[in-house]
Specification:
Layout (H helix, E strand, L loop, with lengths): L7 E8 L9 H17 L3 E8 L2 E8 L5 H18 L14 E5 L4 H9 L1 H4 L5 H11 L6 H4 L4
Antiparallel strand pairs: 1-3, 1-4, 2-3
């Protein structure tokens, strides 16, 4: 085959270190635009971003050459540097070590977009910890509860 055709979607979730409610409403849209720029500059496609004061959800369309761990590392490192340079929080802002990444089929893209759009609604009845554990269970990912929510 002369060309490569792919359709790769990832629902990515990562939290503020210690899950502190540090992402303020007054600057979160600026943060989301900044993250969008990082992803775009890496030649990947951000389909939607949203979250809560203590975590962020992204739906990304990637190329097969994308190393997802490197992409998330760059998003987290550059966005935390941006937050700290702008002094948007008291003290030092950091993202928690690690992230969740869940594949999404083409038929599931709209459902994930709607899920990410409606974060406030979901979290009126479910904590971030409950949400994250539900993802791990739904995707049948082995995990140890002791290691999911450390302060790293």
């Amino acid at each position: 085959m002369a060309n490569t055709y792919t359709q790769l979607y990832f629902h990515i979730v990562f939290a503020v270190k210690g899950r502190g409610n540090l992402i303020a409403t007054k600057w979160k849209s600026e943060l989301y635009k900044y993250i969008s720029g990082i992803i775009s500059n890496k030649n990947q496609k951000l389909m939607i971003i949203n979250g809560m004061p203590n975590h962020v959800h992204l739906l990304i369309g990637t190329k097969p050459t994308c190393n997802l761990s490197d992409l998330v590392r760059d998003v987290k490192a550059n966005s935390s540097k941006w937050i700290n340079e702008k002094q948007l929080v008291k003290g030092r802002f950091e993202w928690q070590t690690g992230f969740g990444a869940f594949t999404v089929s083409q038929s599931g893209v709209n459902d994930v977009i709607n899920y990410i759009k409606n974060q406030e609604k979901h979290h009126s009845v479910k904590t971030f910890k409950e949400e994250y554990i539900d993802f791990l269970k739904a995707y049948e990912i082995d995990y140890k509860l002791d290691y999911i929510f450390t302060d790293n």
